[in-house]
Amino acid sequence: MHPPSLLERSIEAYATVTERDRLERLRELAETLSGVRILHVNSTATGGGVAELLRSIVPLCNDLGVETDWLVMDADDDFFEVTKAVHNGLQGSGEPLTAEMKAIYREVTEANAAEIEAEYDLIVVHDPQPLGMLERLAERMPDAPIVWRCHVDLTDPVDEYRAFVSEYTDRIDHGIFSRTAYAKTIDVAETSVVYPSIDPVTEKNRSLDEAELATERDRLDPLSFDEPVVTQVSRFDPWKDQFGTLEAYRTAREAVPELQLVLVGGMAGDDPEGLELYERVAREAVDDPDVHVMTDLPDTTVNALQRLSDVVVQKSLREGFGLVVAEALWKGTPVVGSTAGGIPLQIVDGHNGYLVEPDDATGAGNRLVDLLEHDERRTTFGENAREHVRDRFLLPRQLVDLLEIFVEALERNS
């Protein structure tokens, strides 16, 4: 186990983007949690939404006076092959779960649990990867509530993977899910639904002035913003359906021949499929000079790209929540997204974007055309988009929800 390096953060930085009452509520909750030590555990410090969330949540909790640590598991490729299979299985497909896979999982999780020496009053484990640590942690810290934050789309899990995870969830005191439907899939003693959120003051989401936008525009050359641009930002993962997005782009290009597509993705440290899928997508797009496949862009460049694009698309087949949708909406860019997972919570169809069925690439392409050919509608949708995110999907709201759950869990265990 190892702690990631984190930048210091101040809750006052959010005073211009959220209500003062919400910040005061955070301070009240922090005072209630004074003297409490909290640990977050996950499997990667880079790539993906969980790591991004923790990079904001952990330092902000400490700024508020709630002593909070974050430890990342140490594991090899064999373990991450297993946990990616578990992830895929929980999202509805995957290879058979073998005895060898279970043994690898147990060995690595138990070894990581043994490395935690400090004492904590509450432990938060994220997604399936650390669940195998719970028995040892519960033995060492029997009075500490264990909270499971599940970020996975549990709409239709494969039975054997659901059963595997359920072997560990009886040790959980409280489960936090991103949608009500997910909470009904796996038995947990107490559950809450907390929508994830974006951090509006990070490099990826902060406001950019005209000079910064111009610099980033030049960095994105040969992409031309004098012609229409559609962008998808997501990990290179089969569930994100970059191939379906390519199909939607080709449909839209029949009506908008000058259209360009940008597929941007990072590589999560715990996802062994990422590089392989990136290479497959790049090969598929290599003969079209108007398709730009990019990886590991700086956050400021992603920020600018989401602002400069005419439309953002997120045609996921499964999606725990899909914070890249809120990122684009916050920047005033309408989104064409699928009805998978938490995307419909963010897109109000016909108000700040459009929704299509996950496998409807043609429908997605037609919705892109609708927005690209109607400038006034696209502008109106963009204006609606930012306010929708401000009300529902910014970090201070999520942090209030989490701290309220922590207070309740500690009170129940006292």
TrEMBL record:
One Pfam family of this chain: TreT_GT1
Gene Ontology process terms (BP): glucose metabolic process
Top-level taxon of origin: Archaea
Its EC number(s): 2.4.-.-
Enzyme superclass (EC): transferase
Alphabetized UniProt keyword annotations: Carbohydrate metabolism, Glucose metabolism, Glycosyltransferase, Transferase
Domain Trehalose synthase N-terminal: residue ranges: 40-184
Subunit structure: Homodimer.
Protein name in UniProt: Glycosyltransferase
Organism: Halosolutus amylolyticus
